[in-house]
Amino acid sequence: MKISPEEAMARLSRLHLAEIGVALTLTVAALLFAAWTVWAAEASGVAVADAWARPAFGHGRATAAYMTIVNKGEEDEVLVAAQSPEAKSVELHQTTMKADGVMQMREARGGFPIAADTTLKLAPGGMHLMIMGLDKALADGGQLKLTLEFANTGPIEIVVPVRASAPEGSGADQSHH
After folding, report:
1. Beta-carbon count within 10 A of 123 CB
2. What's the pTM?
C-alpha cells in the first residue's frame, strides 16, 4: 500500500506533535520538581554557614567543629545531635567560665535551642561540636562529613573544611576549643 506525500507529511506532523508533547510534559515535571526541592529546603528554614573544624592528630584524635546556624523558620528549632561516619561520637558541648576563672566544658544534653528567626553561633570558647574517636587524622585543608539532627527539620548533611583557624569574617575567638 502506497501512501501519498500529503498523508506521509500528516503522519510525520502527528509524530512530531507527540514528541513535542512528551518533551513539554517532561520539562514541566522537571521544573515542578526543582521548585518543590527549593521550597522544601527553604521551608525547613535552617541554614548552616561558616562551618570549620580544627585539625586533629595523635592519640584519641579529637577535634571541635564550629559554624553558624540560622533558623529562618517561623518555629523554634533545636539542634539535638550530630554524627559523623568518620568518628565514634559527636557531642554538643558548651564551654563556660566558672566562678574561679577556670574554663569548664560540658555536654549540652538538651541540645542547642535556636529560636525562630535567630542565629546560633558555635564558636571557640562557647558552644561547639566535640568530635571524638576519629578514624584518621584531620589535616589542615581536609574535610569532615557531619550530619546535624534538628528536632523539627530532621537531618542536614554538611561537609566541614578542616582549618587551623576560623574563616575570616566569622568573628570566632581563636583562644579556646
Report:
1. 20
2. 0.69
